[in-house]
């Protein structure tokens, strides 16, 4: 339990920031290119090609370089400095005026096509696609729950899924800060009528603060660390459940108590030594403002909100883009101040097959302070 306790033995407290990271911004510079046909440059005197350009080349449309002007039109205005009068108006009269604009070209007024507006896709209205692996971690709202115990981890919910049991996620913490001992957490689960062999579906949110499913993924991380195999997070909220026509209740169920026997698994947790080893990718899942103020050296900023849409985990295609900067063959350590909101990023990384571990920023600075004072190793599993 040493690794399990030490990695998130942290709290939301103010701490001296020892390091400032410089943020780099990429600036894209645009350069204007030539608008005319290079193949027609260098002609002198009269030529058939030049004359053809003057009167308009009916085949030039197939070699258009600039939207709105044919090659002949570009040559006539740009090279021979002639107005566009004399060209056929048959085609231009068919153009939609809303797609044109008047621009000056070498002191000559020219009508060119406007750049079509890019239509922004509203991701919030798009369906979320889940793979079989994702469904193995995220239980669909419309899926029969069977014998699974529904565990509501919200701390102030007024509406629950009918028949679910409740353990507010804050109950797994001491004074809302430090993670409780293995014995205390197994007692909480057992008293709620849950054994390690029971299938469990976790749902709920931080009701006062919002933040999506991070409290549910945090309890999921706790239970996986206690050795619980058959556990998933509900792919939605109580409102989604009700919208699917399923029953809700103002009360939660009380099940007969059971014995929860843990089989601790430390592979989901990181410790200070691993973070300092230089062998892992470090992800700061806090807000960008917090990352800019100071972070673990070498950390990459991927805010936890980037993996959530409408209080649900984004689908794998979107998550692939969110994590595109990471190397899938190298372990990842994810942290926030306490690790709670980092858990949703940890969950998403595991969903995509990354070897991800959870950590806390406070634990890092506690160990840094201990190292600086010559008391390295003072941050023990009981802290």
Describe what this molecule looks like in 3D:
The protein has 383 residues and is α/β, with parallel strands linked by helices. It has three domains: 48-113, no CATH class; 129-267, Oxidized Rhodanese, domain 1 (3-Layer(aba) Sandwich), CATH 3.40.250.10; 272-372, Oxidized Rhodanese, domain 1 (3-Layer(aba) Sandwich), CATH 3.40.250.10. Helices cover 25% and strands 15% of the residues. It is built from twelve helices and 17 strands. It has helices at 2-7, 48-55, 71-78, 132-135, 182-191, 214-225, 238-243, 272-276, 288-293, 316-322, 342-351, 361-372, and strands at residues 100-105, 108-113, 138-139, 149-152, 160-161, 165-166, 173-174, 178-179, 200-203, 231-234, 248-249, 281-284, 300-301, 308-309, 312-313, 332-336, 356-360. The strands form six sheets. It has a five-stranded parallel beta sheet with strand order 3-10-9-4-6, covered by helices on one side. It has a four-stranded parallel beta sheet with strand order 13-12-16-17. β16, α11 and β17 form a beta-alpha-beta unit. The longest helix is centred in the middle third of the chain and has 12 residues, at 214-225. It is globular. The chain starts with a helix and ends in an 11-residue tail after the last helix.
CATH architecture field of the largest domain:
3-Layer(aba) Sandwich
Sequence stretches where pLDDT stays below 50 over 5 or more residues: 9-46, 57-66, 87-99, 378-383
Shape field: globular
Strand order of the largest sheet: 3-10-9-4-6
SSE run = HHHEEHEEEEEEHEHEHEHEHEEEHEHEH
* Whole-number total of structural domains: 3
Terminal Cα span: 12 Å
Extended strand count: 17
**Total number of helices:** 12
Largest sheet: 5 strands, parallel
CATH superfamily membership of the largest domain = Rhodanese-like domain
Query: Could you tell me the radius of gyration in angstroms?
Result: 31 Å
CATH class of the largest domain: Alpha Beta
Percent range for β-strand residues = 5-15%
Helix content: 10-25%
| Structural class label | alpha/beta
Output mean pLDDT: 78
CATH topology of the largest domain: Oxidized Rhodanese, domain 1
């Amino acid at each position: 339990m040493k690794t399990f306790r030490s990695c998130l033995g942290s709290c939301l407290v103010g701490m001296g920031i020892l390091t400032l990271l410089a943020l780099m911004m990429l600036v894209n510079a645009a350069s204007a290119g030539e608008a005319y046909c290079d193949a027609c440059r260098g002609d002198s005197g009269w030529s058939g090609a030049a004359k053809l350009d003057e009167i308009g080349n009916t085949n030039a449309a197939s070699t258009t370089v600039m939207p709105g002007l044919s090659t002949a039109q570009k040559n006539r205005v740009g090279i021979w400095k002639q107005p566009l009068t004399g060209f056929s108006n048959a085609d231009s009269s068919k153009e939609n005026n809303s797609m044109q604009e008047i621009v000056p070209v070498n002191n000559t007024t020219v009508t060119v096509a406007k750049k079509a507006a890019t239509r922004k896709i509203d991701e919030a209205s798009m369906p979320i696609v889940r793979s079989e692996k994702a469904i193995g971690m995220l239980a669909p709202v419309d899926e029969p729950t069977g014998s699974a115990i529904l565990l509501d981890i919200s701390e102030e919910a007024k509406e629950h899924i009918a028949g679910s049991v409740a353990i507010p996620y804050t109950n797994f913490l001491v004074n809302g800060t430090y993670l409780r001992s293995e014995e205390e957490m197994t007692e909480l689960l057992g008293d709620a009528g849950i054994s390690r062999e029971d299938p469990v579906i976790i749902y709920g949110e931080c009701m006062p603060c919002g933040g999506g499913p991070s409290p549910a993924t945090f309890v999921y991380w706790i239970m996986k660390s206690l050795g619980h195999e058959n556990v998933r997070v509900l792919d939605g909220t109580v409102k989604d459940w009700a919208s699917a026509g399923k029953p809700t209740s103002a009360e939660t169920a009380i099940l007969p108590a059971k014995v929860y026997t843990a089989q601790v698994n430390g592979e989901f947790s990181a410790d200070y030594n691993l973070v300092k080893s230089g062998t892992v990718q470090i992800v700061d899942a806090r807000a960008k403002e917090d990352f800019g103020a100071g972070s673990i050296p070498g950390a990459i900023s991927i805010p936890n909100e980037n993996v959530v849409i409408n209080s649900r985990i984004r689908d794998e295609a979107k998550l692939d883009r969110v994590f595109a900067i990471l190397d899938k063959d190298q372990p990842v350590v994810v942290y926030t101040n306490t690790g709670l909101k980092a858990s949703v990023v940890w969950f998403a990384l595991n969903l995509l097959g990354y070897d991800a571990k959870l950590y806390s920023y406070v634990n890092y600075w506690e160990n840094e302070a201990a190292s600086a004072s010559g008391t390295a190793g003072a941050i023990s599993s009981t802290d």
